[in-house]
Specification:
The protein is α/β, with parallel strands linked by helices. It has one domain: Rossmann fold, CATH 3.40.50. The chain contains ten helices and twelve strands.
């Protein structure tokens, strides 16, 4: 939440330059308050697990957040519990036809990253959502394959196949210390990664609209933004719970897939030992920072979005 201080206080300008949310007494007296409306396009096969992971993070702030779950009407899910999507989700094209607007939108990852984007059976519908979000959502947070899809759709950034799956918990650094997304972050922080592809760094660096906010030499680009935070692309999974990587590892082993032990995850790289979570605090901080940014910047009347 912002702090309310007099405009003439000497600290005011310094705080604003540091992008700390401050509010003058005049603005506070005239401020209208309403719940934030956040949409979640959940493309993950672990439907209910992903819901819990994201809601746990979105619910850890003093803000009231109204959640709407969106589904791809052009895709028949085989992983969600029977009747779950029909009961709790709205088709994305229905949202678009009703011109429903959001303060924030989250587009998750999906297990389709080795396919060309156009080969994904719901690509056309997802592309419509990405296009719609430009003027109908204040800030869109894209996660993992969702980040690759958004960067490809909006900027033509290709994805490249990795020689082996990037899998584990990796240290990342912050390039843009003044970014509101990283307020309170340590100089180095850990985050889970689980993917077979990566966004083309050269294409991102060559695009003047994109800013590489966080990366690592081992795992590559982590967070990219555009339009001063109205578009956020996260290549990893800060939202993962303690055992998500463990479940993925054992799933792939059971399928006979060539999967290595997730790096920096099990103590002593021993899969018989319980993983140690070292990214939880920064996950909560990142989502709180995002919500706070959305809360401060989005118009009170969502019809004023442009």
């Amino acid at each position: 939440m912002p702090i309310k201080i007099p405009r003439a206080l000497p600290a005011y300008n310094s705080l604003r330059e540091e992008r700390v949310f401050v509010m003058t007494e005049d603005r506070a007296e005239h401020q209208d308050i309403r719940p934030l409306r956040v949409g979640i396009v959940n493309l993950m096969p672990t439907t209910t697990d992903t819901e819990l992971q994201l809601l746990r993070l979105l619910g850890n702030s003093p803000l009231q957040v109204d959640i709407t779950f969106l589904k791809m009407g052009s895709h028949e899910s085989t992983h969600a519990p029977e009747g779950h999507l029909e009961k709790f989700y709205i088709a994305a094209r229905e949202i678009i036809s009703m011109n429903i607007r959001f303060d924030g939108l989250i587009i998750t990852g999906a297990p389709v990253e080795t396919l060309d984007f156009e080969q994904v059976d719901y690509w056309d519908e997802l592309a419509e959502v990405i296009d719609y979000s430009v003027k109908n959502t204040w800030s869109t947070l894209h996660i993992c394959w969702g980040a690759q899809a958004g960067l490809y759709r909006r900027y033509g950034v290709p994805k490249n196949l990795l020689s082996q799956k990037l899998f584990g918990v990796f240290p990342h650094k912050v390039n843009e210390r003044r970014s509101s997304l990283f307020r309170g972050f340590d100089d180095e922080f850990l985050a889970p990664q689980s993917r077979h592809t990566e966004c083309d760094r050269n294409a991102i660096a060559a695009c003047p609209s994109l800013t590489i906010e966080s990366e690592t030499s081992e795992a590559g680009i982590f967070i990219v933004t555009a339009r001063e935070g109205r578009e956020i692309y996260v290549t990893g999974h800060l939202e993962y719970d303690p055992l998500t990587l463990d479940r993925e590892y054992r799933r792939d082993l059971a399928k006979g897939l060539p999967v290595g032990i997730p790096k920096n995850y099990y103590p002593g790289d021993d899969p018989t030992r319980e993983p140690v979570v070292r990214w939880r605090a920064h996950a909560h901080l990142f989502f709180n920072n995002w919500l706070n940014y959305v809360y401060q910047e989005t118009p009170f009347d969502l019809h004023e979005l442009n």
